[in-house]
């Protein structure tokens, strides 16, 4: 597992498009939003798990939840579930909310496409996925 | 009448965040028509607009009109450039209009600026942190630029009441079986 400094974590998240400062990473660590740092040699470091926590926190905070509510939710989840939430981080960045469009096929399938995708192609993709879901249902 | 506390009594000289929690009990506010608060920071420290969303002018004076319940005001402060290490003090000025008369109060909050390497050893006051964590952050860029536009998903026509996967994998009667 990789280890990171607070600065490296900040830079990684910023490269992924997150609007976050080093001071926020430090503060979230101090108030216990992420698990305690791990020891590597004589240094205290962040790991990939911490990175997953930060991604999940940033994702959930976009939905308007308070830090207390996010903390409570994350405490009840496994690290794999936290990683899954974090993977959706870019979907909730405001720029992406404006430039992407989500189509709901049914309760199990949602397709998010860039608004630049031509309408005809969009319909083709939606139809294909709908057919796959239908075939699966009939089997 | 007024209680003010910092989340951290020590703060990083560079890229540090801290919060001031100001509590005013409603019992002391019964006849107060208007309350004004202003936080004065030492050089190098900056502040965001109050997290509660109370009206605040460009000088940082927060106004609360006809307060009728407990006030738990949270102000976020931070360091951006490098601030000299050592003891500093934040000053909180409070004035209120009570039965037509203006009353004033002043509080000092001591703070120690420490090297950023000490970040991990800095302790946070759990009471202040609990208040901060229940706040909705009104200072996120989205709120400064305008409301978030959440585009609702468009919906395809569905012939089923249950989703295909739910239909396929649902086990009816399992509750009864248990």
UniProtKB/TrEMBL annotation, chain A:
<keyword id="KW-0238">DNA-binding</keyword>
<dbReference type="InterPro" id="IPR000551">
    <property type="entry name" value="MerR-type_HTH_dom"/>
</dbReference>
<dbReference type="Pfam" id="PF13411">
    <property type="entry name" value="MerR_1"/>
</dbReference>
<dbReference type="GO" id="GO:0003700">
    <property type="term" value="F:DNA-binding transcription factor activity"/>
</dbReference>
<dbReference type="InterPro" id="IPR009061">
    <property type="entry name" value="DNA-bd_dom_put_sf"/>
</dbReference>
<dbReference type="GO" id="GO:0003677">
    <property type="term" value="F:DNA binding"/>
</dbReference>
<protein>
    <recommendedName>
        <fullName>HTH merR-type domain-containing protein</fullName>
    </recommendedName>
</protein>
<dbReference type="InterPro" id="IPR047057">
    <property type="entry name" value="MerR_fam"/>
</dbReference>
<feature type="domain" description="HTH merR-type">
    <location>
        <begin position="16"/>
        <end position="76"/>
    </location>
</feature>
Automatic annotation (TrEMBL), chain B:
<protein>
    <submittedName>
        <fullName>Uncharacterized protein</fullName>
    </submittedName>
</protein>
